Amino acid sequence: MTETSLLAEIRQAVSESLDRLDGVIALRRSGTGVAPHLFQRGDDLSELVIEPKYPLMTVVSRLHKRFPEIRLGVVARGCDERAYVEMAKRNQIDPQRLTIIGFACTAEEAQECYCSQPYPQKLVVGQPAPAGPVNPLVAEYDALSREERFEFWRRQFVKCIKCYGCRNICPECFCEACAMEDAAWVEPGLLAPPFPTFHLIRAMHMASRCVACRECERTCPAHIPLTVLYDLMRRDMEALLGYVPGADIDAEPPLSVKLDKVPLRQDVGV
Amino acid sequence: MEYKNVETTCIYCGCGCGLYLEVLDGRVIGVWPDKMHAVSQGKLCIKGWNISAFLDHPDRLTKPMIRRDGRLVETSWDQALTLVAERLNAIKAESGPNSIAFLTSAKCTNEENYLLQKLARAVIGTNNVDHCARL
After folding, report:
1. Which has the closest alpha carbon to A217: A197, A196, A202, A235?
2. DSSP 3-state assignment of A102?
3. Most exposed of A176, B13, B71, B99 (fewest Cβ within 10 Å)?
4. What is the ipTM of this complex?
5. Is residue B85 classed as helix, strand or coil in its secondary structure?
6. Domain end: A125, A155, A189, which one?
7. How far apart are CA B9 and CA B15, in angstroms?
8. One domain for residues A236 and A205
9. In CATH, what class is B3-49?
10. pLDDT, average across residues A225-235
11. Would an 8 Å CB–CB cutoff place B61 in contact with chain A?
């Protein structure tokens, strides 16, 4: 399928969805670039595009929270759908009010993203491309000794300008209070931020959440290979706890505690 | 319900990074980096990411103020600018033009910065012009 016909089919699917939904979140040519947009009935769909990708589920979440009744659609890649799965489990998106218009990424995109599943489960448009390779940096990292690994990250994280872009752009970072801004965890006023706590806090919080969308690495002004860290976390999650973030909406995240099922303290039933 | 993203340029420094202001029903609720921007290519620093924070900030000055008896009092632009002009003239007459310095800002446009140095050099008569980053 050519890219033009892929786009035409997506626009057609969006147009049909708009008859029964309050709006569809997708990308739109805007000014000289491309940005997320809420398309509504009657809008010019010739402005709808599919790249460069943005974390569109964050927009869905914001609108779902602000308007508790609205029914939305979203034009989604595989990583968008995986982000949705983990957000829905944590009450950030209401699955009952979301229609996913899924499309397959190209083989080139899958390669570039090192994507293991470059298509959504709800595939509406396009043909699944083969998975991309594993980031070669992961194998390089595996070959290092413990001391060399520490040195590897020290050299990477010293470049950090503490923009918080990795957190800001992450669809799975939605806490109202962030430990990375809490003086109890991260001493304020240091640049580069404290090593290794600053980045490892985020890495630990991403365990069972990171869906490998690679937005953090793309937005990092310091070119830190953050997704190597998160790929390693994802690998351990699967090997040790049998959990693949984003794969199954019914699978419970192993690191989440539901107080109605597991009381924190048996004696007081809290 | 109207959600859109408005393309603009970060005003915090001279780099001119590209960003979108995320607007929901007429209010700015966030920022997206402009991934296709020639300069910033989808990256921002902490200031760019927070560029919208001052828009509705309660400490933001929205009217000219004059300090009277240690308190800031709202006034008109005419009154404020007249006071500034009178005081600058008085200080210049009393202590000379080099007793006055002008500090300008990367948040201003090139044209605004040009005008400020013009005011300093041609009107007041001093080369004391510097920049907010060296305050």
Report:
1. A202
2. strand
3. A176
4. 0.91
5. helix
6. A125
7. 9
8. yes
9. mainly beta
10. 95
11. no
> Residue A93: is its pLDDT beyond 80?
yes
Q: Which residue of A has its CA nearest to B40?
A: A221
Give dist(CA A151, CA A171) in Å, integer: 29
pLDDT, tens digit (0-9, with 9 covering 90-100), for A162-183:
999 999 999 999 999 999 999 9
Task: Give the confidence band of B132 by pLDDT, cuts at 50, 70, 90.
Answer: confident
Residues of B in contact with A218 (CB under 8 A): 35, 42
Chain mean position to CA B35? 26
Domain borders along chain B are: 3-49, 61-95, 97-135
CB contact under 8 A, B46 and A161: yes
Which pair of tokens denotes residue A215? Answer: 């937005």
Q: Which of A264, A70, A269, A255 is nearest to A172 (CA)?
A: A255
Q: Are residues A151 and A235 in the same domain?
A: yes
Give buried/exposed letters for A192-216 (b at 16+ CB in 10 A, else e). Answer: bbebeebbebbbebbbbbbbbbbbb
- Whether A36 and A59 have beta carbons less than 8 Å apart is answered as yes
Q: How far apart are CA B34 and CA B38, in angstroms?
A: 9
- Per the document, the length of chain A is 270
pLDDT in tens, A181-194: 999 999 999 999 99
Structure tokens at B48: 């760019």
pLDDT of A270 reads 45
